[in-house]
Amino acid sequence: MTQLQITAFGDPSVLSLTPSQDKVPAEGEVRVRICYAGVNPIDAKTRAGLGWAAAQNKDKLPWTPGYDMAGVVAALGPGVDSLKVGDKVCGMVGFPLEGGAYAESILAQAALLVPLEEVSLKQGAALPLAGLTAWQGLFEHGELKQGQSVLILAGAGGVGHLAVQWARASGARVTVLASPDNHGFLHGLGAERLVDYHDPDWVAQVGRVELVLDLVGGDSGKAALDCVAEGGRLITVPTITAEAIKLAGSERGIEVRGMLVQPNPGQLAQMLTLLRLGEAQICISGEFDLADGALAHAAIEGGHTRGKLLLRMPGASLDE
Ligand SMILES: NC(=O)c1ccc[n+]([C@@H]2O[C@H](COP(=O)([O-])OP(=O)(O)OC[C@H]3O[C@@H](n4cnc5c(N)ncnc54)[C@H](OP(=O)(O)O)[C@@H]3O)[C@@H](O)[C@H]2O)c1
């Protein structure tokens, strides 16, 4: 068994393949043979030593990144009766500190895993963290209701392209900020209005909306405060700039909330149902072998990924 680990924070080259042993699942746990792991910006930020998870992990290296995974249940711990050996499952695991999904094998709480049924392992690995962030950002923190208007910054990214679909499915009217190259893609997913964030006039083009889902943070998040209608709110998702945007909002009397995504198998099951029924789709724009994890990190750090990136484990067959 192999895993991709870091022994020090740094650029993508600090990721290195190391051997690992299969562990025995404890009470309530299962061992999963991972086929695909999802790549998220937090994996790369933590690898670089940035953010809360890095601060918490700095004295606990080596660290194996990865929170999103899909694979096959290989062993059951005592007391597990919700899953059986051979089930295909996905889940968000080890969040926010332990990680561990950039590996061929992992121990996970059975209660956090959801059977894939007819959804593919690739889709299952791409969905959890981004899908849950979009869902919780829109409906729990954002309190988005049918018929309301929402602006999604970074609509074409991992979280954004799912947020567009969850918002549309709830009956909201969706405006997105994205490069022109992504406008056709996002229109196809249900976005009604498409605005190019390179246009210096983008705030005026958007006008006022009831909810802003800020997936960019920093100056873009601050600028988007001008798009919040009276009584509306802005949810800022990148944690590193959340405090600054909350402060800017409070100075102007605009409600700004930050968030940290939480594992939620019930919500994950609902999203898998939407995929199974063909009512939503996940765009997977890149797949890398586990050994090429550094290339995947360089790509996600480029900041212009469309949809999701995956890591493929050595044992995953190409048609899974
Ligand atoms: N707090 C939490 O719990 C939590 C959870 C998940 C994610 N996050 C954070 O949320 C952010 C988004 O995550 P993600 O996975 O969706 O990232 P991602 O997939 O890497 O996002 C890439 C997208 O960002 C777009 N983009 C880049 N600069 C932009 C700008 N100035 N304005 C508008 N769009 C821009 C790009 O679109 P173009 O190609 O069109 O430029 C690209 O499609 C990240 O910072 C991540 O760390 C936080």
Automatic annotation (TrEMBL):
Molecular function via GO: oxidoreductase activity
Record keyword NADP present: yes
TM annotation in the entry: none
InterPro entries according to UniProt: ADH-like_N, ER, GroES-like_sf, NAD(P)-bd_dom_sf, Quin_OxRdtase/zeta-crystal_CS
Entries under SUPFAM superfamilies matching the protein: GroES-like (SSF50129), NAD(P)-binding Rossmann-fold domains (SSF51735)
CDD domains registered for this protein in UniProt: MDR_like_2 (cd05289)
EC number: 1.-.-.-
UniProt key word Ligase: no
Gene3D superfamilies associated with the record: Medium-chain alcohol dehydrogenases, catalytic domain, NAD(P)-binding Rossmann-like Domain
PROSITE patterns for the chain: QOR_ZETA_CRYSTAL (PS01162)
Domain of life: Bacteria
Entry keywords, A to Z: NADP, Oxidoreductase
Sequence ranges assigned to domain Enoyl reductase (ER) in this UniProt record: 10-311
Name used for this protein in its record: NADP-dependent oxidoreductase
Source organism: Aeromonas bivalvium
